[in-house]
Design goal:
The complex is a heterodimer of chains A (564) and B (286).
Chain A: H1 3-7, H2 13-43, E1 51-54, E2 69-79, E3 88-93, H3 97-100, E4 104-108, H4 114-118, E5 127-131, E6 136-146, E7 150-153, H5 159-208, H6 214-248, E8 253-257, E9 263-267, E10 271-275, H7 282-298, E11 301-302, E12 307-308, H8 311-342, H9 347-359, H10 364-387, H11 389-393, H12 404-428, H13 432-440, H14 445-473, H15 477-482, H16 509-518, H17 523-558
Helix pairs in contact in A: 2-17, 5-6, 8-12, 8-14, 9-12, 10-12, 12-14, 13-14, 14-17, 16-17
Chain B: H1 18-31, E1 37-49, E2 52-63, E3 67-71, H2 78-85, E4 95-103, E5 106-107, H3 115-121, E6 122-125, H4 136-140, H5 142-146, H6 152-165, H7 169-172, H8 185-197, E7 203-207, H9 215-228, E8 233-237, H10 241-247, E9 250-255, E10 258-264, H11 265-270, H12 275-281
Parallel strand pairs in B: 3-8, 3-9, 6-7, 7-8
Antiparallel strand pairs in B: 1-2, 1-4, 4-5, 9-10
Classes of the chains: A alpha+beta (564), B alpha/beta (286).
Chain lengths: 564, 286
């Protein structure tokens, strides 16, 4: 044998390379997608320096008509489209939407004055303020009005410390009255709403009943009215407390001057957070990042979802996914057990299996439409008619409208094929020897399934759950029809009895992305929010899947069938 | 078990000779009388998988509290016969039989007989050890639990008795509540025997119980079989002829679905009446 023969490559080596390339391509694409979302989503919270710059006298990119000077943070730095000489343009976040009418401004590098093109100046004292309305403001402080007559000039040494302390005080007060309005006043409103519906129902009753019943009905209505008044009185007290606190927010005010010269005075209660980014050290930056990120996670949205946090959306997505899992698992697993273990293989079973697999290919919006027709109108309407006649009489649907229950059930229906298919596979993978062992011990078929087969296939069942959760949590289209809203005033789980409100409408991260990214008036301002929300949606799915994977690994260890 | 379905080998002639039949019957009748008999295969028992017949015209009596070995080359139907005794073949679609099998005088094909109560009377140990993915304790008491006996004292007592009986107690008594899948192969097979005797069956069927074990573990199982026969009737299928001579009192030799010879083990191995038996036990084919 010659040596060349030995050197010959084994047949099929190019195919190995091809498969490796396929995997590499897929991996690269996934990694790139995640990286883009991660970087764009996470850098939103990192503080950026604010520059004060001057434009050339004949620039057409002025921020203010009066002056060439402006201030802003760079949010994008790119080559001008179509320019061959590599000239660049910056997108500045200039804020102050209440005065300029916009928040972002593109400025070509060539339009800046000579000295600013190479070195951008960062004034130390410039302040950035997060406000309740109109987004951020960038300014120099002028003075602070304390109460009615005391005025503190910005030149005073402890001006900033005092300002920060007062803003903090306002924040605490705001948290207090928000809690009051949400919890206590919310409870009262809840009760009043209920009584209103009862009164409406009784009034509707009255018009249909005979005259002699009138007196009794009127008495009933009066009693209800009295009850309502009692609640109203309680409401007045609390509302007054809240009102007082709201007024206190207006007590002190800050006057500031923009770089472009305009002055404005705002009560301190309108500020959420004031800071001087150009004075931040690395520790401050990390602290700022953490607090911004935490705020994004834990706060309610403001200003048509463009500012503030997304807590209700995270919570809504989580609750909906959990409810969906609770609904889909028993349903899918039982169906798969019958299909795999009991049904005699034949035309019918094969037909059912094909139908189940095809369900996975039905567009999700069709499930949404089905959810509206079947769950909301039929099931919900029937429940209302049978159990909540008061609501029907007053023409207010209770379950007969979109809500988190119907949304979860719609998604459960949508993910049933995933669970059925993976459960069937898991059941089929349980070795025949184990089943025979159980049967030989005198177990019936159901006992064999329940005590031996199901535990052994539990890891496979969880795989199905993981796939179903990943699909369900990321779905948006059907939810738009069955209960997701842009802004939900209340969470589906709260401290008001009965604590879990299956009829409530809810917010969802996927819909939030659609709403903020594509339905908001200012798409530039929305972009960071969209990335951050996408990042969180992926994070939420990953966390929930990780939990399921951990349980699965635990079960795998416990019920390992490697002995066979 | 996979060999069950295979077609009978065709290299040799397979026409049953009437003389064989009568010879086998007559020796057997002499050896096992009515009072000793526990399992009786009678009325020319035959068995089919769909249209393929795998057992032909079987008549034999298996004595009480003895070890009976079923031997023969692959595909001869010995495992199929064994699995008829606890009707494990019922799991397969399209089976049918002719003739009858009785255990303790009662037909196992009687429609009034609960298959579950039959399996409680006839325990089984499989070729490949198959403990459940549960703790050692739960494996042993499985048959009690499925029949609804959950009394803690009874379960504890059963676990100790069964594990002692299967010579496993000393090795596992400190880890009864750990997974059974952590045991060695030989231990797992003894656990399966403990599981089979927990229910106090009359018969224990063993389908090549040592084929997946090393010689030392095999030795332990064989010792165990020897001890168990004082209380149980054991029917063992084996490919290993030395094992058959070591553990069994009586041996039946099957070939192509027919019973060729059946008798005292020592007699069958030292002085076989049939040419094919002699060829097989002396290793000339198989």
């Amino acid at each position: 044998m010659k040596l060349e023969d030995l050197k010959q490559r084994p047949a099929g080596e190019p195919m190995v390379w091809l498969t490796a390339m396929g995997l590499a391509l897929g991996t690269v694409m996934v990694v790139c997608l995640l990286w883009v979302i991660f970087v764009n989503g996470i850098t939103v919270f990192w503080p950026k320096p604010v520059y004060q710059l001057e434009l050339d006298a004949n620039s057409t990119h002025r921020v203010s008509a009066e002056t060439n000077v402006f201030a802003g943070a760079i949010s994008m730095d790119r080559e001008i489209t179509g320019a061959d000489d590599g000239t660049r343009e910056y997108q500045f976040f200039v804020g102050n939407k209440d005065i300029y009418g916009f928040m972002y401004k593109f400025v070509p590098q060539a339009d800046l004055v000579e000295s600013d093109r190479t070195k951008l100046t960062q004034p130390k004292d410039i302040m950035v303020a997060e406000r309740l309305e109109y987004g951020n403001a960038i300014f120099y402080p002028v003075s602070m009005q304390l109460g009615t007559n005391e005025v503190l000039r910005a030149e005073t040494p402890d001006f900033t410390t005092k300002l920060y302390a007062l803003v903090e005080e306002c924040n605490e007060r705001r948290a207090k009255y928000t809690a009051l309005e949400k919890k206590d006043i919310g409870r009262i409103n809840h009760a009043i709403r209920k009584i209103d519906i009862q009164i409406k129902a009784l009034t509707a009753d009255k018009t249909t009943k005979e005259v002699q019943a009138d007196a009794a009905l009127t008495a009933q209505i009066d009693a209800k009215e009295k009850e309502k008044e009692k609640w109203n009185a309680e409401y007045e007290i609390l509302a007054k407390q809240a009102e007082e606190m709201r007024e206190a927010q207006e007590k002190d005010s800050l006057t500031y001057r923009l770089v472009t010269g305009e002055e404005k005075t705002l009560p301190l209660g309108d500020f959420v957070h004031i800071y001087q980014p150009n004075q931040f050290g690395i520790g401050d930056k990390v602290g700022f990042f953490v607090s911004q990120f935490w705020g994004f996670l834990s706060e309610n949205p403001r200003e048509a979802n463009m500012e503030g946090g997304i807590f209700p959306a995270i919570f809504g997505t989580f609750v909906m996914t959990v409810l969906m899992s609770i609904a889909v698992m028993p349903f899918g697993v039982l169906a798969a057990i019958y299909l795999r273990e009991y049904a005699k293989d034949g035309l019918f079973v094969r037909g059912v299996r094909i139908a189940v697999n095809n369900l996975a290919g039905v567009p999700s919006i069709v499930f949404g439409a089905f959810g509206v027709g079947f769950f909301i109108y039929m099931a919900g309407g029937t429940i209302d008619r049978l159990f909540f006649p008061d609501y029907v009489a007053s023409k207010v649907p209770y379950f007969g409208t979109g809500g988190i229950l119907w949304a979860s059930l719609t998604l459960a229906l949508m993910t049933v094929p995933v669970v059925v298919v993976s459960t069937e596979e898991a059941l089929a993978a349980v070795p025949r020897a184990v089943r025979e062992g159980a049967l030989a011990c005198g177990a019936s078929k159901w006992q064999t399934i329940q005590r031996v087969v199901l535990p052994a296939s539990a890891p496979g069942l969880l795989t199905g759950l993981i796939l179903a959760m990943a699909r369900g949590a990321g779905e948006v289209a059907p939810l738009m029809l069955v209960g997701v809203v842009k802004l939900a005033p209340e969470l589906p789980i709260d401290s008001v009895a009965p604590f879990i409100h299956l009829d409530y409408k809810f917010m969802h991260l996927g819909f939030h992305i659609y709403d903020v990214g594509f339905q908001s008036p200012d798409s530039e301002a929305a972009k960071p929010m969209v990335f951050a929300t996408t990042f969180l949606l992926i994070l939420l799915v990953v966390v929930m899947n990780l939990a399921a994977i951990l349980i699965r690994n635990h079960l795998k260890k416990k019920y390992s069938t490697s002995a066979f | 078990m996979t060999t069950l379905m295979s077609e009978p080998e065709t290299q040799e002639t397979s026409k049953p000779q009437p003389a064989d039949q009568t010879a086998a019957e007559s020796t057997e009748d002499k050896a096992v009388n009515d009072s000793e008999t526990l399992i009786e295969v009678k009325d020319n028992f035959g068995f089919n998988y769909g249209s393929t017949q795998v057992l032909f015209d079987l008549n034999l009596r298996i004595p009480n509290r003895k070890v009976t070995a079923l031997i023969g080359p692959s595909g001869c139907g010995k495992s199929t016969l064994l699995r008829c005794f606890n009707r494990m073949n019922d799991l397969i679609d399209g089976i049918s039989h002719t003739g009858d099998i009785t255990i303790g005088g009662q037909s196992i094909f009687d429609p009034a007989l609960e298959i579950i109560s039959l399996r409680k009377k006839v325990g089984m140990v499989f070729q490949k050890y198959n403990p459940f993915p549960k703790t050692i304790y739960e494996n042993v008491v499985f048959s009690l639990r499925v029949s609804g006996r959950n009394n803690k004292a009874l379960l504890d007592e059963t676990v100790e008795r069964s594990l002692r009986r299967s010579a496993l107690w000393d090795e596992v008594k400190d880890r009864l509540h750990e997974s059974a899948l952590g045991l060695s192969g030989g231990q797992m097979q003894r656990l399966c025997i403990a599981r089979a005797i927990a229910n106090e069956p009359e018969v224990i069927l063993m389908d090549e119980p040592c084929s997946a074990l090393d010689p030392i573990a095999t030795g332990k199982i064989e010792e165990l079989i020897d001890e168990l026969k004082t209380d149980y009737t054991i029917v063992i299928v084996t490919h290993n002829m030395q094992q058959a001579t070591r553990v069994s009192d009586r041996t039946a030799f099957f070939y192509l679905g027919k019973l060729i010879e059946y008798g005292e083990t020592t007699k069958l191995f030292t002085n076989p009446q049939e040419k094919r038996t002699e060829d097989y036990v002396s290793g000339r084919f198989g």
